[in-house]
Amino acid sequence: MEHDTAAVVHLPRSAAEAVPPWPTPLVVRLAVSGLLINGIAAVLGGIHYLVSFPPWLDGVRVLLVLAGCILTGAALSWRAEVWWTWGLAAATALVGWAGLPETWDSYRLVLGVAVAVALGGALLLAVPKTWRLAAISLYLLFHFGGIFLATTSPHTHNYPAPMVTIQLYTRLYHPYLQFIYMRNAYHFYSPEPGPASLLVFLLRTDTGQHVQAVDPQTGNPYERKVYKHQWVVMPRRPDDVRDPLGLSYYRRLSLTEQLARGSPGVIVPEIFEKSEVQARRMTRLGLIPLHPTEPIGLQYRLPNSDVMRYLLPSYASHVILYHTPDVQTAARTTVKIYRLEHRTLRVETFAARQPDGSYASPFHPTTYLPFFMGEFDANGELIHPQDELLNWLVPVMPREPRPNDPDDPFRKTYLDYMSVHALDLTPQQVLRADESAGEVFNWSLLR
């Protein structure tokens, strides 16, 4: 009688035996290939500082760095358990950073962070396991300590934050949390949410033609250039809602909030520079008045230095290059940037009926406060640094209806001084203009 013999099953004794790792020579060749490709891009970048070459070679440098990072990244994913693959990844990212054109500053920032992360990974794998666990534990304590301070650092006069919390958050944790963007979400919007910001751009393209015009302030005739105008709103529904949850729209809305970082209330007569700013503003009162209800100290918002140096020029170049068909048109185009601060209606105002029986619209033009942030060319250069209205509020003011409305051509219930300033028109011309035809800014675009 035959008996079945049980098969002998050999169980793997390690992860490497169960899933054999990629051969070391192959991983090394792949990682070194990525490093050498990035090195070629770095050599091209060094030559560019010595001699000029066609602009399309910058695109070649970007493609080389991208290919090199992909190859080394693949090698790292194959053998992430050894320290030398992380070291090669750090070297590849560093050389790729040098090989990228300076205009690719965001990509350079990503590679700079990759260098730090890869060096940290190599160090953790090179030290004994005990030290590795201790380092990871300390980092987790540091990270969650930052989140704890982010929730306790906001303070008011009635509920001041502890001094230790303020010092640690300001001096240690704020740069870290700002970098990983985990600061704003932990500052709860209580009791009232702050105003949201939208960006409005007016692109002005020089057509090369001239017409006779009259200066609205002096009444003197002069020869005026003819421009082609285009209004752009960022972000805008539904154009920027590109996913079911609208995340793309809210991410762009968060980007516009970066331009709101400024220093309100800096009009101090004792300081010459600030009083000069106020004096220049007063020269335009004949055409564009101050806002009737906002304190004058809050009608001037000086942006932070990084906003003026980097963000505004970047926005200007992007909008011009994106909305012009070719380089020649972009060179003849400038853009005026306005940051619109949208004020939420009070509950009492929203619930109360108006004299005609309707309710107040939360999107009425007078709920927006447009701040002029400058006029820029395609290179991001500020054209008029001494503009009288630079960084000032250009008001949108309520207007009492006329007895003959709606037959009266002045039928609008507001005065749009943003269009007055942007298009160099008079208030009467703006009131008579047709918004739907694009002659002035169409406020329905913000709904």
Concise synopsis of the structure shown:
Keywords: Membrane, Transmembrane, Transmembrane helix. This protein is α+β, with helices and mostly antiparallel strands. It is built from 14 helices and eight strands.
Total count of helical runs of at least 4 residues: 14
Number of domains: 3
- The portion of residues assigned to helices is 40-55%
First and last CA, distance: 88 Å
List the strand order in the largest sheet: 2-1-5-6
**Low-confidence stretches at least 5 residues in length (pLDDT < 50)?**
none
DSSP strand (E) fraction? Answer: 5-15%
Highlighted features:
447 residues, alpha+beta, four-stranded antiparallel β-sheet, two-stranded antiparallel ribbon, 8 strands, membrane, transmembrane helix, transmembrane
Written description of the protein model:
There is one protein chain. The protein has 447 residues and is an alpha+beta fold. The chain has three domains: 19-126; 129-186, no CATH class; 196-446, no CATH class. It is built from 14 helices and eight strands. A four-stranded antiparallel sheet has the order 2-1-5-6. α3 (56-78) runs antiparallel to α4 (83-99). The radius of gyration is 30 Å and the shape is globular.
Write the layout of secondary structure elements.
Blueprint: H1 15-18, H2 24-50, H3 56-78, H4 83-99, H5 105-126, H6 129-152, H7 163-179, E1 196-214, E2 221-234, H8 247-257, E3 262-264, H9 272-282, E4 301-303, H10 305-322, H11 327-331, E5 333-342, H12 347-351, E6 368-376, E7 396-398, E8 414-416, H13 417-423, H14 427-432
Antiparallel strand pairs: 1-2, 1-5, 3-4, 5-6, 7-8
Helix pairs in contact: 2-3, 2-4, 3-4, 4-5, 6-7
